[in-house]
Amino acid sequence: METINNISFLNYGLHISNYKGVANLQEAKEQFYTIFGKAGYQITKRNADFVDVHGYLLASSLADFRSKVTALQNLFTASGVKVINLGNGAMNTFAKDGFTIKNVHITGNVFAKFHIKLTIVS
Q: Which residue stretches of 2-87 are H helix?
């Protein structure tokens, strides 16, 4: 289940459609020897230091939509790192550039596209 600070994204009306750039550090590699008396090391490739999250914000009314956007603003403007779990382990992140909400549609319910780029700090 996708969470932010151990709170489901669904509590904020967020439905994650995709994400990319999730950091997947491989297991630490052991030292090995190729020449007698000289140690060598295997290279561990780091895939990314950010996660780019796309999704949809869904709300039952315009007032509900505004309250969910306000809750997201309060969450991401609060000091400290945000612990994000997208189903493959927790990551400490922060939002350097904030988030965007666009293409807002009101058809009884309210829905809009959501995007945020989070920097992974550990």
A: 62-77
CA of residue 55 relative to chain centroid, distance: 11
Rounded to whole angstroms, the Cα distance separating 30 from 39 reads 10
- Give the pTM: 0.74
Report the C-alpha gap between 74 and 68 in whole angstroms: 10
CATH code of 3-120, in short, is 2.40.30.200
Given a contact cutoff of 8 angstroms between Cβ atoms, the answer to whether 86 and 19 are in contact is yes
Q: Is there a contact between 99 and 72 (Cβ–Cβ < 8 Å)?
A: yes
User: Which residues, in sequence order, are CB contacts of 10 under 8 Å at separation 6+?
Assistant: none
SS3 state at 24: coil
Q: Is the pLDDT of residue 22 over 70?
A: no
